[in-house]
Give the backbone structure.
Amino acid sequence: MELQKLDRYAKALIKEAGRKIRQSFSSKLAIESKADANDLVTNIDKEIEQFFIKHIRHDFEGHFILGEEGFGDRLTNLDGYVWMLDPIDGTMNFIHQQRNFAISLGIYKDGIGVLGYIYDVIHDELYSAQKGQGAYLNDEPIPLLESTTISEAIIGMNASWVVPNSYIENEGLVRLVKDVRGIRSYGSAALELAYVATGRIDAYMSMRLSPWDVAGGVVIAQEVGAVATNLNGQPLKLLGQDTFLVARKSLHDTLIEKYIILK
């Protein structure tokens, strides 16, 4: 009953946050850079995170919050309930396109993901999952993922990793591009996780992601049989940045063994 109560509450909060984001389209954005010129944040990112935090702190005393914009808690462990929130995942898309972004939320208990949500605000698509209870898109069950092969796969990957870089051997990714059916990049880790979970793409990888980028999507993807690890095949770090790979089970090990060589 506790998780069901949390689930209803989280969905209502997410939908209200989505309405606030859509209403913001008619107003002028205040845009700032964070770590670099392409790492952007807007006043809406901040306002939506503060909206979540205000309600969570009021209604769930003792729960903790990890939020991208820094208004939550500074944690050294994942004891108890921790809400991992990205109020707008895909801020650059939000600014330039007013689409291809999502609210990402994962609720973890003692380090285990128990509830996960990705809300495509523009398309009104809410992906959700409760651990052990399957995954859903707008409350309709998402089928388990079937096996596929590299030659039939569509992979979500930023094209910048295919050129020489300081993170990964690009020759392996050049081979991957040649061997797969297609490559896609949507600019939102949350949406790419949702697309893996629904079979729209077959895997997604990234060099640097934070817990709030993937916390909700990992719960959803695992409920349909996807495998999520870092690019070494190890469990994800949820208190700092890490590399990331989520894929159909039939592809996961092949991608790591044949194509991914970290520097």
